[in-house]
Amino acid sequence: MKQKSKLSGEQAFHQFYQQRFGQRWPALQQALLSQHGYTQLDEGLHSPYHLDTASILAAEALDVQPGMDVLDMCAAPGGKALVLALALQGKGSLTANEFSRDRFFRLRRNLQLLKNPPDKGIFCTQSDARRYGMDHRHVHFDCILLDAPCSSEAYVLKNPHYLQQWGPRRAKRLAIEQLAMLCQAVQLCKEGGKILYSTCSLNEDENDAVIERLMKKRAGHFSIYPLHLSLGQRTQYGWQIWPDIHHQGPMYIACLQKEKSPEGLEKN
Known about the structure:
By secondary structure, the chain is of the alpha/beta class. Helix content is 38%, strand content 21%. The chain has eleven helices and eleven strands. Strands 3, 4, 5, 6, 7, 8, 9, 10 and 11 form a nine-stranded mixed sheet that branches. The protein has a two-stranded antiparallel sheet with strand order 1-2. The radius of gyration is 19 Å and the shape is globular. It starts with 8 loop residues before the first helix and ends in a 10-residue tail after the last strand.
């Protein structure tokens, strides 16, 4: 009896998404490989910064207001952090966190583009977002952006090295890490504050499914904050921007509102 030959990373990748999207996958794949529109941020910056329009929409959905204390948990390379800082209009504070050493320094350079930083300052931290609340126990924020590391199918498709290394276990591992980061965000958010969760993944397991798991793990500590975006399709808990339909993204966006302090979270 012949043994089935092991699929290459590229073959496994296409098989996985073909099973998920069926006849739609070729068009979706082509859209992922296409260059989508970018918006130029320039007002309030020393020099222009180009950012994917869907990324701007995600950062703006957090509805940051002047005077707030804001955390960007996975901030590099810094485009969304710039959007958040500009929304503060020189008042409040921004903490931009990035665990990767190389990406951390890139983040710091990009934040120097701001002409008018928040009056309470910009703070760059280099902590693992999965344990941020353990490292910063006494700090809480009005708004938190978690643009979580994800499968990023568009990036994988454009990079043969990562495509050959791809495996279905990666998405499962990422979903576990995303949930851990969201639990930290719930811990760090002030009562009544908001948490914006986003990914650039098409994989449902990293999007609505993560929110659903958080609802079971942190039941009663937050509620789903309703979003009404100008682009995308509504999902069970948030919004999905599709590159083959909306010619932007991909981008998943969900917003949570903190209900009460989760006692003992740091022990879990």
